[in-house]
């Protein structure tokens, strides 16, 4: 598909409102809070990647740093336009995200947490791993509990 592209949102800020709508259509949150969160996308982490087809935003994911794991990152808020699911776009977005993490950010591991999309990620080669803390080491260990469904993918096989 020649007109299918994945790029960082901050390089194409004209897509911010559309991206906001796409995420909010799945996970309701105030528009202003969502827009503020998207404003933090940069060449350093966090980075919001968007999947654009025929100049429309049809997918999104957010890559964040993990303070305690220097060569890893946390991918979250992966979403594809409701009308276009089940057509391979999610897989395409994740593969491009992995490429970006590996070649642009020089990272080796992607961690993510899911409750409900295990099959999708397993098909992409992700494996269940021990819970990790996505917060700084100053946070008590109890915060790890929220990550009990973490799955990871070793990009450099
Ligand atoms: N159950 C079983 N298999 C699935 C599911 C599912 N829910 N979703 C996708 N798959 C399979 C597909 O059948 C396909 O298999 P194949 O390669 O053998 O043909 C493969 O996974 C790839 O599917 P895609 O068509 O690329 O997936 P899609 O474009 O629908 O995107 C996504 C998947 C992103 C999960 C989408 O359904 C979505 O936006 N869901 C709502 C939001 C959500 O739950 N996001 C994930 C949150 S977890 C996180 O962000 C880390």
What are the key terms here?
single chain, 157 residues, alpha+beta, Aminopeptidase, 7-stranded mixed β-sheet, 27% helix, 27% strand, binds acetyl coenzyme *A
Largest sheet: 7 strands, mixed
Q: Decide which structural class fits the backbone.
A: alpha+beta
Helix content range of the residues, please?
A: 25-40%
**CATH architecture assignment:** 3-Layer(aba) Sandwich
User: What do we call the CATH homologous superfamily?
Assistant: Gcn5-related N-acetyltransferase (GNAT)
| Total count of helical runs of at least 4 residues | 4
Strand content: 25-35%
Radius of gyration: 15 Å
Parts with pLDDT < 50 across at least 5 consecutive residues:
138-149
Mean pLDDT: 88
Strand order of the largest sheet: 1-2-3-4-5-7-6
Q: In angstroms, what separates the terminal alpha carbons?
A: 27 Å
What are the secondary-structure elements, in order, as H or E?
Answer: EHHEEEHEHEE
Q: Count all strands and give the number.
A: 7
CATH topology: Aminopeptidase
What overall geometry do the principal axes of the alpha carbons give?
Answer: globular
Total number of distinct structural domains: 1
Give the C-level CATH assignment: Alpha Beta
Ligands present: acetyl coenzyme *A
Describe this protein's structure.
- The protein is α+β, with helices and mostly antiparallel strands.
- 27% of the residues lie in helices and 27% in strands.
- A seven-stranded mixed sheet has the order 1-2-3-4-5-7-6, with helices on both faces.
- The radius of gyration is 15 Å and the shape is globular.
- Residues 138-149 have low confidence and may be disordered.
- Acetyl coenzyme *A binds next to strand 4, helix 3 and helix 4.
